[in-house]
Amino acid sequence: MAGAGDDFAPRLRATVAAYIRFATEDAALLEVMFTGKHRPGAERLVAAAVPAFTLMQDLVAEGQAAGELVAGDPERVGTVLFATMQGIATFINSDMVAPDLLDDLVETAVAQFARGPRPA
Q1: What is the DSSP string of 46-107?
Q2: Predicted structure pTM score
């Protein structure tokens, strides 16, 4: 995100792309992160996930404050964005979508998310 500049849209795009790349390039670790946190004694794993969600909520709040994203609860909006990212990663990891479509999917997801729930 630091290399994306100061404008919100490129920073959002970079964050989304970085997460999906991680999630598709290290799918086994991603699975451990999501399934392992439900095991007894997984408090450290749960705590380790907090920064990723906090980063997304902070980025959403920043975009809302700048008028780049629709208003609303940053936690809820961030959760929807995170679910979109996770869904794209899941589709790629399960061979439902070709990995070479990642950049186009990121661009489409960010554009639609930034445009908000209204027709173009």
Answers
A1: HHHHHHHHHHHHHHHHHHHHTTSS--S-HHHHHHHHHHHHHHHHHHHHTTSS-GGGHHHHHH
A2: 0.80
